[in-house]
Specification:
Blueprint: E1 2-20, E2 23-25, E3 35-45, E4 48-54, E5 60-66, E6 70-83, E7 99-100, H1 106-112, H2 126-132, E8 140-141, H3 142-156, E9 158-159, H4 170-176, E10 178-179, H5 181-194, E11 198-207, E12 217-227, E13 231-236, E14 241-242, E15 247-253, E16 262-263, E17 266-267, E18 273-284
Parallel strand pairs: 9-10
Antiparallel strand pairs: 1-6, 1-17, 1-18, 2-5, 2-16, 3-6, 4-5, 7-8, 11-12, 11-15, 12-13, 13-14
Length: 285
């Protein structure tokens, strides 16, 4: 068990006072059998009316509404968690799903819904063909297949820090052979959906004790695939890892655009925005 303190600060600056529209904040981790939320706090300046709700996928969302114009918006979140995920988990997959191909039950198909369908077009079948290259026979071990795709993305795509907003399409990521963690996770998601797996996007924090303290925590994006009986299994193509060790999930969604930590706008011109700053720290206690 590891106890972690997560601090996430976001600051927006404007050239003059602007009227802020409601901001949607997804900053509190999702509790589970291997992650317990011990405490959480959220501070917003200028003062805001905070309304809490759960979205359709059970993510905890805070909506901040503002009454007065401001030239600076500061959002600070601090969370204390217990992380108990195993470094080498053993997944108890339903016997009928040990080998691929397999079929989900009617109930699973209904509940997975849009999470079974690729998010992006693949008109010439490039991504589908690339993904099928990992299926090395008429039947293959299901978990090994997913691990091979996860590792194969790391072989085909070089990681790079990308400051631009949005997520590259999987075809673009394959074509230029580089991308951010969110680009690599989006590639994994659409790839395994082409094979009939249910998959979803995850955003949250990374805690890696193998790196220096100054770089031991950051926001991160990865993917999860659903296997009968085992449930949702984390796949992190950026690091070639499987399982939830070192990962603190905050939100899950059909795609990355649904699970951004902070979204919102203001009334004014584009030139009114002068810049933003994000600081994240994940400290082991």
């Amino acid at each position: 068990m590891v106890k972690l303190r997560i601090r996430h600060d976001t600051i927006y600056r404007y050239r003059h006072a602007v009227l802020l529209q409601p901001h949607r904040l997804m900053l509190v981790p999702r509790g589970s059998h291997d992650l317990t939320i011990l405490s959480s706090s959220l501070d917003v300046s200028p003062k805001a009316d905070i309304a809490w709700a759960q979205d359709v996928l059970g993510n905890l969302v805070a909506t901040a509404s503002f009454a007065v114009p401001t030239d600076k918006l500061a959002i600070s979140s601090e969370v204390l968690v217990d992380q108990r995920a195993l470094a080498w988990p053993i997944y108890r997959i339903a016997p009928g799903a040990h080998t691929y191909p397999f079929g989900y039950s009617y109930g699973e198909m209904a509940d997975l819904g849009a999470l079974l369908h690729p998010e992006h077009d693949d008109p010439e079948g490039v991504l589908a063909t690339w993904t099928r290259s990992f299926v090395l026979g008429p039947t293959v071990d299901t978990l090994s297949l997913l691990k091979n795709i996860n590792n194969g993305i790391g072989d085909a795509v070089a990681y790079r820090t990308r400051e631009e907003e949005g997520t590259q399409s999987p075809l673009e990521t394959l074509s230029i052979a580089n991308g951010s963690c969110r680009d690599m996770s989006a590639l994994f998601i659409d790839a395994v959906r082409h094979l009939g797996f249910g998959a979803r996007a995850v955003s949250g924090y990374l805690h890696d004790p193998d790196v220096s303290l100054d770089d031991a925590g950051s926001t991160h994006a990865w993917a999860e695939a659903y296997l009968p009986a085992a449930g949702w299994i984390a796949f992190d193509p950026t690091h070639g890892r499987v399982g939830s060790a070192n990962l603190i999930p905050v939100a899950v969604g059909r795609c990355n655009t649904q699970i951004m930590p902070v979204t919102g706008g203001y009334a004014g011109d584009a030139e009114d925005f002068s810049g933003m700053e994000v600081r994240v720290g994940v400290e082991e206690l």
